[in-house]
Amino acid sequence: MSDLVTTSRQGSVLVVTINNPPVNALSPGVPEGIAAGVRSAASDEGIHAVVVIGAGRTFIAGADIREFGRIVSGEAPPLNLNEILSEIENSPKPVIMAIHGTALGGGLETAMAGHYRVAVASAKVGQPEVKLGLIPGAGGTQRLPRLAGIETAMQMCAFGEPVSAAEALASGIVDRLIEGDLLTGAVAFANEHPPVRRTRDLSGKLLGAVAAESLKSLFQDSCRKKLKGQTAPLAAVEAIAATARLDFDAGIKYEATLFNECLFGTQSKALIHVFFGERAVARIPGLPKEVQPLPLRRAAVVGAGTMGGGIAMCFANAGIPVVLKETTQGALDHGLASIRRNYETSVKRGRLTAEAAAQRLDLIKPVLRYEGFDEADIVVEAVFEELALKKHVFSDLDAVARDGAILATNTSTLDIDEIASATKRPEWVLGTHFFSPANVMRLLEVVRGKATSPTAIATAMELGKTLKKVGVLSGNAFGFIGNRMFGPYRHEAIRLVEEGASVSQVDQALTDWGMAMGPLAVGDLAGVDVAWRVRQEAIRLGIPHIEASSFEDELFVRGRYGQKSGAGWYLYDENRKASPDPEVERLVREYAACQGIPQRTFSHTEILERTLFALINEGARLLEEGIALRPVDIDIVYVNGYGFPAWRGGPMHYAETLGLQRVTDRMRALYDEFGPFWKPAALLEQSAKAGRWNS
Ligand code: 3H9
């Protein structure tokens, strides 16, 4: 037996321990090791039962996700978990699975192949495969409904959320909760000599064909709404419903067919790319290993507006005391009232207890001057997006903050070096671009200036983790990664409307494709006035491809600022529900006539190409310029901050899925038609042949 799985004895119980850090994934050798342990018990007269337990922080977090890419590319053979789990299930001696940490995916499937499951109260179990574009592929869709019933199984497999040990006990997945030491409790359970009870033989919770089909339609409808565009959730539900018509062995075969369709499809490739990408972005190439993040025990935030208040909540939510400064009592009261309302809503929705909300609120200390700023390890400035104002605040901060504190500016476009120049310590200055609402959105762009020290970068990246966000490092370019790319993307969306597409057609083409919102509706949400100001600044700075005139200016001059003014690209009712506005269509045709823009109709494919290829091309330029470190950094920014569908993997991954050559060819054709805006980035041209980003 390998070191991955070891055995020991406790009286007449064989203890099989999995030891594959960090999360005891079912890497090659692990399932075989467990089965070998169970097999050895069968022939050992001194053993009457087996306990399987995980060493370290968890039971089994699932199949080894790294293996999937190797299987698809033919480098590794398909996983053979079903046979191994059958062998465990067929053991003539009872097998008790002892769960702590998480039993996820193949981990829960392994646990269900045992005859009993015991768990500590803090454990969680789940079938999260859909989050990787997969369905359970080692019997989960067949064993889970036998233990927990079809409805629970559909809920868990279609949406992928884990359940607590208490819920697992209530639904029959777990047989006993263990207080105190898990192994002791599991061995005690084994010593009660429970009879062998194979999950595959249970049928009490299965349903007849009619009931199973009706649950299937219910869940599939719900998946189509909540997980729009994703195929794995539908397949998971389908496999579970099949328990009504197929016996266990046929069900396992059917599951394998559906699993393989998912595994070899583009969605799982994209979602696995995102899974590893979210972890990869934390590793900064070139940052010396000895550089350690500084501890962040206290924070301060300047500005109690929407962003500042949200950022203060992020610190409080992470248990970090935070001082929140405004210039007037009125603004401070207003900011705190919003924070309080936000917490109250969380309590009402059952996401937070009233006590926890009160504790968090207590951590936020409102001030009107810079009291307490000298104790902060990090200060985040979140005042109005105006360079002169931000510089003024930074010169204040330079005077009040302690040496070695991180001075961060929450800006979406402004020049970090310019802001840092207002201090005598530019090495401690960087950008932290939070996304609105800051206490909800997962993305944190960390922007390094030319003088920012490696320690400051490491600390800001760690801040992302502390605040439960995904931090992505960006260079200091206008708009950083996300907004810089959003510019050309929206530029094309607006051009399409100017050339004859309707506002809702452009937005719908993109939402049907999977974007959370259309680019024009985003303008209304963020504010047409904000977009106008950013564009003026871009023109002032001479950012390439910003045209002097845009139809959006017409909306701006008419005070159509978007949702906040009740009208923008769309009309809004009092609940901010959008409807198309014939007035906008009229104005845009007038504008086009004035500008001499020829009018025509567009297919959805053309709309997608023009907007998404503009996004991809700008991404390639960011890579060339070293603003984004790797294609995956761009993908993670877009998936976490811009509503890009994770199951398409982010813009740069999507370009590879389409074929970089195809993207380049189409861009060249657009270049011939429209000129310099469409010049393919040099990196795209270089990468096209290989079909992979060459960076
Ligand atoms: C499956 O099981 C299919 C089956 O039906 C069978 C089909 C035949 N494999 O997240 P963390 C790495 S599909 C390989 O930072 P945490 C992770 O990349 C699988 N590696 O820790 C990271 O590496 P690094 C179903 C894995 O405490 C390190 O472990 N299971 C796996 O915040 C630490 O991870 C899932 O989808 C894995 N399965 O969270 C569970 N899991 O340090 C996926 C983790 O080099 N995993 N790694 O960056 C998770 O949700 C979280 O990792 C977990 C721990 C909650 C377990």
Verbal overview:
The strands form four sheets. Strands 12-11-10-13-14-15-16-17 form an eight-stranded mixed sheet, sandwiched between helices. A six-stranded mixed sheet has the order 1-2-3-4-6-9, with helices on both faces. Helix content is 49%, strand content 12%. The chain is globular and about 90 Å long. It has three domains: 5-264, 2-enoyl-CoA Hydratase, Chain A, domain 1; 299-474, Rossmann fold; 490-626 and 659-690, N-(1-d-carboxylethyl)-l-norvaline Dehydrogenase, domain 2, CATH 1.10.1040.50. With 695 residues, the chain is of the alpha/beta class.
Summary, kept brief:
The protein has 695 residues and is α/β, with parallel strands linked by helices. It is built from 29 helices and 19 strands.
What attributes characterize this protein structure?
695 residues; alpha/beta; 2-enoyl-CoA Hydratase, Chain A, domain 1; N-(1-d-carboxylethyl)-l-norvaline Dehydrogenase, domain 2; 3 domains; six-stranded mixed β-sheet; 19 strands; 12% strand; binds (S)-3-Hydroxyhexanoyl-CoA
